[in-house]
Amino acid sequence: MTEKKLLPGITLVIALIWGSNFPVSKAAIEQIGAWPFRFYCNAISVVILLIVVLFFFRKEIVFKDILLCIPLGIFNLFLVPLLNNISLFYTDAVKSSVLIYTMPVFTSLIYMAINRSINIKYVVTAIMGVTGVLFFIAVDKIGTGELIILISAFCWATGTVLSEKIPIKSNLLLRVFYQNSVSLLLIVLTMQFMSDDIRLPLSVISQPGVLLPVLYTGITGGVFVYILWFYMIEKGGAELTSCAILLSPVISVFISCFFLGESVTLSMLAGMLFIISGLFIAFREEKSSGR
Question: Is 121 exposed, middle or buried (0-12, 13-18, 19+ CB in 10 A)?
Fold first, then answer.
């Protein structure tokens, strides 16, 4: 099996992880706040990656690559997860988990500006994805939570493009470690000014309803999914990768429905149809082009 043929399977795994992160995180964020939640998740990610790095990659750490990873860490691991978590204070998990996937549109726009050309395949996929998103939120107003998510989607698109454009030689694990470390440092420096609810780790351990989401998000959403994400960018390009995440809101909606009691309407089902159709277009044409 070639590396390209692995991409649809990797897409499904990424969709399962990111699709579950919004509904899993929402309950814990409501208890301890967005900033403490991000701190705990990020700390878990850094500790796990640090152990791996100390055992396997000590001699491979390159200072230049650490510097190159700073902008990636700011966008991918600091701004995007934090804005996502903050949005959950202002809107429900379904709308947050759907609106974040306007990201492919921003990615296509950035590439159009950089390359001064249009890739029809990804533009069509992005349009179908956004059409699906609009079906999801057609009857609702765009409020604070929705605006925050749209800003997050733009930051995510920027980080995705930078991940492809910045030449970093370190392996995937080290890249994820560098970016998580940058994010954790920024959270530590800014949290004291942005949150009045700073709790000690022991208070989190005593609450299973907080501990389990922190562990799940920190391990899967902070480590594993980003290794797969950067692998996809490396093998399939940023535009294909950005379109590939369109499956995540479908999964997130069903999880929100079953575990948070949030409703699924006919307009949401129509939105899912557009999103999934766009995803099939992206991968079918990728295969037929013989890349």
Answer: middle
What would the two tokens of residue 188 be? Answer: 């530590």
Q: How many residues are listed for the chain in this entry?
A: 291
What contacts 287, CB < 8 A, 6 or more positions away?
4
Q: Give, in order, the Cα–Cα distances in Å from 226 to each of 187, 197, 209, 213, 217.
A: 19, 28, 24, 17, 12
Residue with token string 């726009």:
109
pTM above 0.90, yes or no: no
DSSP the chain: --HHHHHHHHHHHHHHHHHHHHHHHHHHHHHH-HHHHHHHHHHHHHHHHHHHHHHH-GGG--HHHHHHHHHHIIIIIIIHHHHHHHHTTTS-HHHHHHHGGGHHHHHHHHHHHHHS---HHHHHHHHHHHHHHHHHHTTS---HHHHHHHHHHHHHHHHHHHHHHS---S-HHHHHHHHHHHHHHHHHHHHHHH-S----HHHHHT-HHHHHHHHHIIIIIIIIHHHHHHHHHHHH-HHHHHHHGGGHHHHHHHHHHHHH-----HHHHHHHHHHHHHHHHHHHHHHHTT-
Task: Tell me the pLDDT of the chain (291 aa) as tens digits.
Answer: 456 667 777 877 887 787 777 777 877 877 777 788 888 899 999 999 999 888 887 767 788 899 999 999 999 889 988 888 788 777 766 666 667 767 777 877 787 788 777 767 667 766 776 777 677 665 456 677 778 888 988 898 899 889 888 988 888 889 999 999 999 999 888 877 765 555 555 566 567 778 888 899 999 988 998 898 888 888 877 766 766 666 666 676 666 666 656 666 677 677 777 776 766 666 664 444 443
